[in-house]
Write a structure and sequence with these properties.
The chain has 529 residues and is mainly alpha-helical. It is 77% helix and 0% strand. Helix 8 crosses helix 9. The two termini are 46 Å apart. It comes from Cercophora newfieldiana.
Length: 529
């Protein structure tokens, strides 16, 4: 008995020393891990931030150039293309005639439709690649492809004597490299989800959008000043900033769990056929491996779709609600054109209206959302119910803001409506955070489905809004705001869908058990060390 007791005491002492050692090691590693996560999130934010602010410096000048080219064509006054050439001095020449504005609307409508094709065609393959080979590879490729497409559009508008203006409809083909701008956002959100837990994810997403909003607050005044100095200054600075984002995207530390790639390799090795020859370099073996992985990824995608209409139907409803509330950046450019037509402002001045929305959005993300989150926590609401309530509130504000913009008779009224809409820009991140918490597994492929859904939403909404905009131009007066009435009605439909959703805080961690739900996230975070 004594010897047995002594043995137990010795083992207990050894276990105790090992446990203390592990705890000390964990405490030592925790600050390093936190620093690394902050570095990864900041790097991902910076890549997307640079890409967005760079593209925004190009968007308004391109609209101005396209309008000038159309003015030359419809008016046929003065030397051809004098206003659109790099050396032209009349870039800010007013041109509000109805034919020009309608053609400009058609040009933008079909460009946006074409711009969605890379996401629809490459979204799933890029999501599979991101889940199997890494997030940073796809992020870098999408930044490169998106920048290349913008460069092509600039070249077409620079030399209208050589290239027909409608050739810009083909430039999104270059975005097939990486999947386009939507893929950039999708991969950045996936990176953030990899290194954050559920309790902090919504706030982290809010800070992410706040960083974008800071760019939005700064970009329009800066673009205004640069366009006043020279339209090409804005274009070339924007392209340079976008180019900087590319190496940043490629150089980020990988956040995809290493265990996932080991499991994929093991699964491939368990196939009945020998996928590789003895030397492991046979082209046929490589092709077979690629086909096998593509089939596995497609099966994973179909499995997720099945879950969305059965076991995970709440996530399916959230995706459906986003289908009615996704308009893309063309909605902002439509707002600028609306102000340009309604009040006769120059493009650079009309672009400043967006700054009002961005300022309000910045206040929302940095102050109001954290305050609302803490306040709702004090009233006992869990993370899921908080996100759901804030989603509903955002939808209501979008409805009010849309009707206010549509019916505005004065610039002050319009800016008020834009500000109200700015208070609702958190809608997308609340929906995304809620979907992520409801489905803790398959994050990469879920975000791919989200990107495809967003593309479909834009594919449906933007042509509808564009047709209504042209009809409003024909009718004149307050009818010019017709697309914003439709936007408010679409948000009303989204709100009706969200009203049916009920979430259960007790179900956190997944229906398959907390251990299963937690393990993928825990393993991914550990792999970032």
């Amino acid at each position: 008995m004594d010897s047995e007791h002594e043995g137990q005491t010795e083992r207990t002492a050894l276990i105790g020393r090992d446990s203390d050692s592990d705890n000390n090691a964990a405490r030592t590693q925790r600050p390093k891990l936190l620093t690394r996560r902050i570095f990864i999130i900041a790097g991902a934010f910076s890549a997307r931030f640079l890409f967005l602010i760079g593209s925004s410096f190009v968007d308004l000048p391109l609209l101005q150039l396209q309008e000038n080219i159309l003015c030359d064509r419809f008016e046929s006054t003065g030397p051809p293309y004098a206003y659109s050439s790099p050396l032209g001095s009349g870039w800010n020449r007013p041109c509000n005639q109805e034919a020009v504005q309608k053609e400009l609307s058609v040009l933008r409508q079909w460009f946006i439709m074409a711009d969605l094709l890379p996401t629809l065609l490459a979204g799933v393959p890029m999501g599979i690649i991101a889940d199997r080979y890494g997030r940073t590879l796809v992020l870098g490729l999408s930044l490169f492809g998106g920048t290349l497409a913008v460069v092509a559009s600039v070249l077409i508008c620079t030399f209208p004597q050589v290239f027909p203006l409608r050739l810009i409809w083909l430039t999104p083909i270059l975005s097939l490299i990486g999947g386009g701008e939507v893929t950039v956002a999708t991969i950045v959100y996936a990176i953030v989800a990899d290194v954050t837990d559920e309790s902090n994810r919504s706030v982290t997403f809010s800070l992410f959008v706040a960083a974008e909003t800071i760019g939005g607050v700064l970009q329009n005044p800066l673009a205004y000043l640069m366009m006043k100095a020279g339209i090409w200054i804005s274009v070339f600075v924007g392209l340079s900033i976008m180019a900087i984002s590319i190496p940043l995207g490629f150089c980020l530390p990988e956040t995809l769990g290493k265990g996932a790639r080991v499991e994929d390799t093991s699964a491939a090795e368990q196939q009945p056929e020998d996928l590789l020859t003895d030397n492991g370099e046979n082209d046929h073996g490589v092709l077979q491996t690629a086909i096998t992985q593509a089939k596995a990824g497609w099966q994973q995608f179909l499995h997720l779709l099945h879950l969305l209409v059965t076991k995970e139907h709440q996530v399916g409803l959230l995706l459906l609600s986003k289908l009615f509330s996704t308009f893309g950046k063309d909605a902002a450019l439509m707002l600028v054109q609306y102000v340009h037509i309604k009040f006769g402002w120059e493009w650079a001045e009309a672009g400043l209206v967006l700054s009002a929305q961005q300022i309000v959005s910045f206040i929302l993300y940095t102050a109001l959302i954290p305050f609302a989150t803490n306040l709702l926590s004090k009233y006992g609401l869990g993370p899921r119910n908080k996100d759901l309530l804030l989603t509903k509130a955002s939808a209501v504000l979008q409805i009010v803001g849309g009707f206010t913009v549509a019916l505005a008779a004065t610039p002050a009224a319009l800016i008020s409506g834009v500000a109200i809409s700015g208070l609702a820009t958190g809608y997308s991140i609340f929906v995304r955070s809620l979907m992520t918490s409801l489905m803790v597994n398959d994050i990469g492929i879920l975000y791919t489905v989200i990107s495809i859904q967003e593309a479909l939403g834009i594919f449906i909404a933007n042509p509808l809004l564009s047709v209504l905009f042209r009809r409003g131009i024909d009718l004149g007066g307050r009818w010019v705001g017709l697309p914003f009435v439709m936007a408010a009605l679409l948000y009303t439909a989204a709100l009706c869908i969200i009203a049916w959703i009920r979430v259960d805080e007790a179900g956190e961690g997944g229906d398959d058990g907390s251990s299963d739900g937690d393990s993928p996230r825990r393993g991914t975070q550990e792999d970032t060390e």
